[in-house]
Amino acid sequence: MGGRSVVPLLNTNRAGAARMARAGHVAAAIRIPERVRAQLRLVLPSASPRLFVHEGARQALERKLRGAAPGPVILSITDNRHSIITHRLQKGILHARVHHMFLNAPAHVVEALVRYITRGDREASAILGDYIDANGFRLVRRRRNAPLVTRGKHHDLLSLFEDINERYFDGTVNALITWGKRPTTKAKRRKTIKLGSYSGVDRLIRVHPALDQKWVPRYFVAYIVYHEMLHHVIPGSRGLGRVNLHPPEFREREKAFRHFDRSIDWEKRHVGRLLRT
Fold first, then answer.
1. Which domain holds residue 168?
2. Exposed (0-12), middle (13-18) or buried (19+): which is 58, by Cβ within 10 Å?
3. Rounded CA separation 84/100 (Å)
4. What is the DSSP letter of 201?
5. Is the same domain home to 238 and 161?
6. What is the pTM of this model?
7. β-strands 204-207, 196-199: how paired?
8. Which CATH number is 241's domain given?
């Protein structure tokens, strides 16, 4: 088909329009763009989508909390993927922050949420844990801007990961791994140091860059990688309102690492030096 429209143009003369009406024709105007590129482009926003909260649902949940709490309640709805439920008592006011997945939760889950926040109910914690696990897909992943960095100056994390994966997990661990970011400013002297971390939402293992030093043995870095890979395989257990990141099964399997005792001993003897670096 050519660029021109095959639909006759509507006669804009009044007399012509009257004649068409008497003949039983209905006036209509159809415009077909002459070129495809004349169509409007769809422009998507570059910013991350904002969270829009149904205020009526938020107020309904807040009223339930007020009915069970001894004092005033302020409820905030979040999209935080790490702190799903947090609450604190400040100057007699209960401040609660709850993930938006609970706004349309079943009645028994909402009741459990109220009991957990206001009384720390143990059974309620288990119900909430099951609901969060079943709705994990609603925990939004953040876009990764920084690339994964696996090769350090002295240790190659990807090589360690692949070796441990085959040796201890039959190659079944499909997590990612990277060195953590080095601090850009001089921080205050720490009393503790987190040598590794695992994000279940991102399936990402981060290893502290302080371990990428010549005097840190390869077997110890391998132990940290193995420990975080276990978090991917054995999730934490819920109970008493908290998450136990190292349940008995985790502790037992951790000892299967070839250099477990040696690594624990090395960490005790060198943790001070790691803190200084």
1. 157-276
2. middle
3. 9
4. T
5. yes
6. 0.52
7. antiparallel
8. 3.30.2010.10
* Domain count along the chain: 2
The answer on 242 and 172 residing in a single domain is yes
CA distance 100 to 87: 15
* CA 253/CA 213 separation, integer angstroms: 28
- Closest among 92, 98, 100, 44 to 69, alpha carbons compared: 92
Contact 195, 203 (CB under 8 A): no
Residues 6+ apart with CB under 8 A from 268: none
**Residue 249 in contact with residue 188, Cβ under 8 Å?**
no
**What whole-number distance in Å separates Cα of residue 232 and Cα of residue 221?**
17
Answer whether residue 47 is part of any domain.
no
How many whole angstroms separate alpha carbon 175 and alpha carbon 198? 9
Report, in this order, helix, strand and coil percent for the chain, each rounded to 5.
40, 15, 45
Cα–Cα distance for residue pair 30/5, rounded to 1 Å: 9
Query: Using one digit for the tens of pLDDT, what is the confidence trace for 184-226?
Result: 655 556 667 889 998 876 789 999 999 999 999 999 999 999 9
Q: How many whole angstroms separate alpha carbon 8 and alpha carbon 141? A: 53
Task: Give how far Cα 152 sits from Cα of 179, 224, 274, Å.
Answer: 8, 15, 17
Give pLDDT tens digits for 42-93: 444 444 445 566 788 889 999 999 999 999 999 999 887 777 898 898 889 9
